[in-house]
Amino acid sequence: MKSRIPKIWLSLALAVTVSCCTYQAVRTPMFSNVTEGAMFYANVPARLYEVVTNLKTLPQRMDPTCSECNQF
Hints:
By secondary structure, the chain is mainly alpha-helical. The protein has four helices and no strands. The protein has helices spanning 4-42, 44-56, 58-62, 64-69. The longest helix has 39 residues, at 4-42.
């Protein structure tokens, strides 16, 4: 009976340690992905504005002399 108790405690301590380490290893990348996704989709109007602006300035970027001619 006395030899069982230390084995049980040792097994329990090892199981808790392994489960905590596994939880930390899995949680960290998943949490950062969720955070990045939330920040990306929270700024959808700003991203759409950037796309529209880039499309409007595309001809000027394709032909640098055009932007020089259109200066006020």
